[in-house]
Protein 1
Amino acid sequence: MLLGCKDEKKTDMPETTQAKTKSSIVKSDYATTKEGVKIEKYTLTNANGMKMEVITMGGDIISLTAPDKDGKFEDVVLGYTTPDLYLDGNPYFFGAIIGRYGNRIAKGKFTLDGKPYQLTVNDGPNSLHGGKGFDKRVWTATPVEGDAPALKLTYTAKDGEEGYPGKLNVTVTYVLSNDNALEISYEAESDKNTVVNLTQHSYFNLSGNFAESIESQELELKAGKYLPVDATLIPTGELKAVAGTPFDFTKAKAIGKDINVADDQLKKGLGYDHCWIFDDAANTLKSVGSLYHKASGRYMEVLTTEPAIQFYSGNFIDGTKDSKTGGKYQKRSGLCLETQHYPDSPNQPSFPITTLKAGEKYSTKTTYKFSVK
Ligand code: BGC
């Protein structure tokens, strides 16, 4: 079903700058869960022909194409080849909306307003990505009218769901802008004081060939500090300077350059799986880094209102799942750039607060902007 369609051809624009296609958003049936719930798929196409597929399970982005320097569009996000893995737990969190709390909370415990809470523990001794989190929930999708294709996804988490206090209404909106940016806004409101840390778990590989490791892609993070972790990947509380360490991405650097050096933190994460703290902590949409694949020329700039980012270099991908481009996904087939607040903040008073008070509005934005250079 064609839901929205805008002819982006503007007659007063010179021919060379005219957009080539119409933007559109098309809804189709995707699959049915074991419980009989129908999962829909929405295909968003912007005026340049960039395409994104989103399903209502987890709000998962299952594909996203971007042009290379010759104008060739290829999929730049990892995804499964069959619906069952999305429907049945999404083991790698491919493309998913993450919540109620992105990343780990130590032992799944925290205290809020003097009251202790016990969350679902699902990662060693800790709670990861909200337990049976928002990635494993069915969202309601509504296309949004506008110049560019946009999809609004809503989900209501129950009071006490996975151990968290407060009924939480969540809205995540994806816009595929006509300047080739994926703009994501996250909004939430709770009826009780709670903790919230929402993010997106797409695995990028700008080469468009998932058999190619992300190690040659160049990452820049405008972050002079990162959070060292303990053996269970919980931040120790220290904010460590990246200067002189393998964690220094203040100047664009190939991800593989230092990933195998002898370093206790790299050993703990089996590679990069840490939170970097942006130098600019402002709650405004600011450029915080980029990813670049030289051979294709694809360049992705990251902008966010968030103070930090979890850069995860796909260390736990175990070679068991089929790849969209053939073969199996391997360690380092893709990487996540999860803009967020710091992991375990509810237990770490020195970290920026992640409490959302009853009736207050949670609102953050992140943009992944594609171009070539
Ligand atoms: C975490 C990893 C985890 C992965 C799950 C990332 O956000 O930092 O430790 O294994 O999500 O795919």
Protein 2
Amino acid sequence: MSKTFNFYDFHPALADFRAEVTDGLRAEPKMLSPKFFYDKAGSELFDAITELTEYYPSRTEIGILERHGEDMARLLGRQCLLLELGSGSSRKIRLLLDALQPRVYMPMDISREHLIGSAEALAADYPELEVHAACADYSAEFEIPYGPAHLPRAAFFPGSSIGNFEPTAAGELLQRVAEHLGDGGRLLIGVDLKKDPLRLQRAYDDAEQVTAAFNLNLLQRINRELDGDFELQQFSHRALYNPQQGRIEMHLVSHVDQTVTVAGERFSFVAGETIHTESSYKYSVAEFQQLANWAGYQAEQVWTDDEQLFSVHCLRVDSRSTGGRQECREAVN
Ligand code: TRP
């Protein structure tokens, strides 16, 4: 085991889960936040998604990291404090660790067991590294639980998870990360690119129905944790590309008119009504750089694969570069 392994638990309370779910089911149109996908079963299903032939992002991003890891490490700076948002199985960061040799690694994820398992395994493999894992919801305000002030800071945000935020919220999240990093800090971030809508759609609606199981698992989680009575056979998975908004949308579609009870409250569905469970925004390189600029970063470098499927950006915090107060939505249009 490494010199230090610490775990900090800021996991949102069950009461927050209940309030967000019931608010979302009361809303019109109905919606649930994708951060709730990642209970234990959901995290395992997501790992299975990343192995699917149709789901090109994980494998493509890994290829880019393998090919350019040395250059990335040089830009991020050795001996830093490295924060990772949404570390998941920590598979990608391993590709950078040998080259980067950070002093402190701080993985942050909302999925508690998954985070502990993968961060402990990583600490065992890198005995010189100080590992401080934090279970937290980074879509809200978050704290960095530990950090020697003298170390330069860098952050890694892989998997195009930034695309799961509405553009305005994405810009605000990038701003909060910039505040944690401080002027001159670097952010290495993976962003899925715009492409043929059919290819996109297949990535979120695979032949083996793993993504469907992942989407439906959210209802199972609500049944279990919030005393719900969703009948899973009465809903199905739908993924579609919305070209106006430049995003994949995932929905759960109700087959029939039905009423469901969650946490003692009743919610009615008409046949064909959907719960919007996730968006995954796709950005061109220029669009994403504009968003980053708005949030207070200078684009330093960008790497893509030969097919232009996926991009990895190195951004440098430069508080002078904020693009004024216009909405991010405008910045990316
Ligand atoms: N960040 C991933 C993405 O937008 C998350 C993701 C991939 C996902 N496939 C999914 C989320 C399927 C829900 C369902 O690509």
Protein 3
Amino acid sequence: MHPVPLTARRNGPLTGRVQVPGDKSISIRALILGALAVGETRIAGMLEGEDALNTAKAMRVLGAGVERTGDRLWRIRGVGVGGFAEPKQQLDFGNSGTGCRLALGAVAGCPITATFDGDASLRSRPMRRVLDPLERIGARTLASTEGRLPLTLAGARDPIPIVFRPPVPSAQLKSATLLAGLSAPGETTVIEAEATRDHTEKMLKYFGAELRVDPFEANGRCIRLAGQPELVPQPITVPADPSSSAFPLVAALLVPGSDIILKSVMMNPLRSGLFTTLAEMGAAIETIERRAEGGEEVADLRVRAGPLRAVEVPGARASAMIDEYPVLAVAASFAEGVTVMRGLKELRVKESDRLAATAALLRANGVKVEIEGDDLIVEGRGRPAGGGVVTTHMDHRIAMAALVLGLGSERPVRIDDGSFIATSFPGFVELMSSLGADLS
Ligand code: S3P
């Protein structure tokens, strides 16, 4: 891909009604569970971004029928639990950690050998954490450089149900283990000390798997999955991605006079930490209509510009807003006072070292920021100077957060490469422009 430099500059207020693309987590899970079900799964509102498209390609290479039948409409013909075919080519997940790690889990429960690869960003990310439980289930890692991609995995011939306690809060790790556990006889148990997004659990239940979720200690959950279910296809409607909604939402808070409506935003409590935090900061976000759609709660949100105050964001909230810290840090730089975001260790192993990249993006634009241990500390002074050039490190969320900063800062903000925005938010520039943003 050629780098696509972009510049964001101040313009008039943002106004209008928009719906951001479908949720990345749910789209990827729908493709994988659809491929493991028996029969045809129809998906509406699919995210047609690179991460989901790469997962779709991988499911096709593994033997599922995957077809686009219209605008964001997809049809998957599944092969059944354990039924993947040995791929004749390697599986390339591009930039997608979720696609890759969940597919590792699904392949680990099948008696096939597959090679997984991705782009330079994905090749730098840790896979050992997911290989550990999969090897306990019976898969073998045949080739890999220090637990990184490219790697070759031989799935288990006789998968063993395990009890797994993820060493870090990660929905990808939990999901990979559950997907591998689908093939094992008996009960696979995942005990997470801190609850993470529960889309895999919800969708497995929806497809007819026997799955029990109980509270565990103060903030955790114990998930028990009965192995070898027959997954029955169900229609899936993908709600708008709250992590993508975060960018126009924060932009509207920062650009004076803005008043926008974001339609059908998923309000899953394990994803809505940003909304809680912005409300504490005094943001004017009004929930217009809360309703259930396709098994998830969604709402239309009205967002109006206004002053923000600094807050302390507890580490316990990190799982519910892990992808939102770059854009929250941007909001914090427009607030009055010092915002402290605690417990951000996992940000270091995202599409880039997002803790460092977020700090660098703010510094380049005249904001005082510190990293202390795993905490990010941002000094807000109402309106940053801007004028910086931001290095995005193949990270879609760093790119979008930097552009949001530039829509409100005194001087324009330029990013070195906006091409990775298409991994999660195809049409970002067009959608923001339709609200009145100046992005070129
Ligand atoms: C995701 C889980 C999170 C998140 C990622 C999507 C998922 O990663 O950052 O964008 O869909 O399960 P971790 O599981 O590594 O925290």
